[in-house]
Amino acid sequence: MIVGYIRMCTQAEDRDREKALHQWGAEKLYWEKDSSRSWVRPAYEEMAATLQPGDTVVVSEFRQLAGSARDVLILLHRLYSAKVEFASLRENFHTATGQGRETLRVLSALAEMEEERMLRRQKNVEKAKAAGRYKGRTPLAIDEEKFRAVCTRWRAGEMTAVAAMRLLGLKPNTFYRRVKDLGL
Known about the structure:
By secondary structure, the protein is an alpha/beta fold. The protein has 2 domains: about 100 residues, 3-Layer(aba) Sandwich (Rossmann fold); about 40 residues. About 55% of the residues lie in helices and about 10% in strands. The protein contains 8 helices and 5 strands. It has a 5-stranded mixed β-sheet, with helices on both faces. Helix 1 links the parallel strand 1 and strand 2. The termini are far apart. The model has no long low-confidence stretch (mean pLDDT about 85).
């Protein structure tokens, strides 16, 4: 059986995806409303529970399956281990072909190498912290009095958050983190 998986974006995009998946031969579609970065996806889990060896999961593009290359590879490996084929229309990728299987093996090897590098870096940082050589990034210095004054004006509706950030010379993550840290 060929099943399609769609993570909803806009209705116009969803209709186009639905049509493309049906044209490719999808007999059943599973729709997801959650973020591709979330691992809690009931429709995906429901679909995975019904898959049998020899079935094919088709998506319109890789980003429908997961939010990062690493997460895509994890899900592809799960499908491949269950002897379920996978196809992505935009990337013209299909594990039923020799080229698709070989591409999957190469991508999996690269993902495994990156995972090992990341773990090695984390261990090195932990060793440096234990030895007192790693301090982390120095927090961006701000004038707390000016920050509080600008936040007071922002909270009072005298300016937008964007204007407050521009006035303080801060990016959104830093601005909102400081607002939270200072309880503003």
